[in-house]
Amino acid sequence: MKDKNGYITMLHGAGGTVMHSLVKNYVVKYFGGLSNAEVPLDAMDDAAVVGDVVFKSDSHAVKPIFFPGGDIGRLAISGTVNDIAVLGAEPHALACGLVLEEGLAISDFERILESMLQTCVEVGVGIVTGDTKVVEKGSLGGCVMNLAGIGRRTMALENNLQVARQYKSDFAARWVLDSNLSVGDKIILSGTIGDHGLAVLSAQQGITFGSEIKSDVKPLNRVIQRLLGEVGGVVAMKDPTRGGLADALNEFSEKSKKGILIHEDKVPIRRDVQAACEMLGLDPFEVGNEGKIIVGVVAAKAEQVVKFLKDTDEGKDAEIIGEVTREFAGVAMQTSVGGKRIIARPIGDPVPRIC
Fold it and tell me: Beta-strand (E) ranges in the chain?
């Protein structure tokens, strides 16, 4: 998709309908169907699967490069790792491409590298190759980077799929994919929404909200592997980044060809984030996150999944927020006042350059 003048706009990189149309109508148009990958480009999942290897490339242009709770380095490692992890794979190696702006302070560069190292230790995987370029001053806002990573199958994934098949005899998927949901599956959110987007917005605009809202950015691979191995029954997972919860749920619905009903009073959100969104006219369902997962799980294991997550730092605010239904197509929300409203896929994330 292109705008009326035929040029790329900021919306083309903001998640939501505009970005998805750009990728589908142009990138997939030219490169889709060229490989025999098990999960190919055409699937538009969070990563691809080639053989038994999960492969992901992820670029990061967050502005500013330091924000409450994180920085571009921690964001790049976490975002790439999480996109590998939500397919059920364990990250195995990373590559990093750095594009640095002339005039970036060496002390800031080192601060970013130290943050990346710390995050790699948390993940349990290292950067093994990469590339560095420098561009003219005033081009980037400090730096941008591309992280690529590979992941591999684990016994935890195999256990998870075996558990799912105990409850769904026709379940034949080899990976945890957006298209795996079926009627009756429960939808679980691991924690509060909107934290990352509001933290970046506060840094961009110099806004304070009467409290310190921090990004939730963190790697989730270890908790995901434990969830798969110790509980199981997970059929779909996403990290709701650009476009937030609304975009991620609509991806689930479109690819699985099923309706999803969520319950407003079950969606966890911090009071200060809710208040900030109301003040700014933002929908918290459309604001990006960088340390949360949405889990689609067979109904019989849903309570066990929530209990497991609540015992972890990453999932202490986890809730069952909805279920998959045959009653309608798309995503709808049961409101706290008793009615229902459609949760449409957003045009794009309302906060620019959050990742």
Answer: 48-50, 53-60, 66-67, 70-71, 90-101, 127-135, 143-152, 186-189, 234-238, 259-263, 294-297, 319-325, 331-334, 340-342
In CATH terms, the fold of domain 35-39+47-149 is 60s Ribosomal Protein L30; Chain: A; (3.30.1330)
Domains 35-39+47-149 and 155-342 share a fold: no
Evaluate whether 68 touches 206 at the Cβ level (below 8 Å).
no
List the chain domain ranges.
35-39+47-149, 155-342
Please give the chain's pLDDT, 355 residues, in tens.
444 558 888 777 777 788 778 877 887 788 877 777 888 777 777 889 998 999 999 999 999 999 999 999 999 999 999 999 999 999 999 999 999 999 999 999 999 999 999 999 999 999 999 999 999 998 888 999 999 999 999 999 999 999 999 999 889 999 999 999 999 999 999 999 999 999 999 999 888 876 789 999 999 999 999 999 999 999 999 999 999 999 999 999 999 999 999 999 999 999 999 999 999 999 999 999 999 999 999 999 999 999 999 999 999 999 999 999 999 999 999 998 888 999 998 887 788 888 8
Cβ-based burial of 277 (10 A; exposed 0-12, middle 13-18, buried ≥19): buried
Say how many CA atoms lie within 13 Å of 129 toward its Cβ. Answer: 5
Residue 321, SS3 per DSSP = strand
CATH architecture of 155-342: Alpha-Beta Complex (3.90)
Helices 271-280 and 195-205, interaxial angle, to 10°?
Answer: 50
CA-CA distance, 42 to 27, in Å (whole number)?
9
Nearest to 272 by CA among 350, 204, 194: 194
Packing angle, helices 221-230 and 72-85, rounded to 10: 20
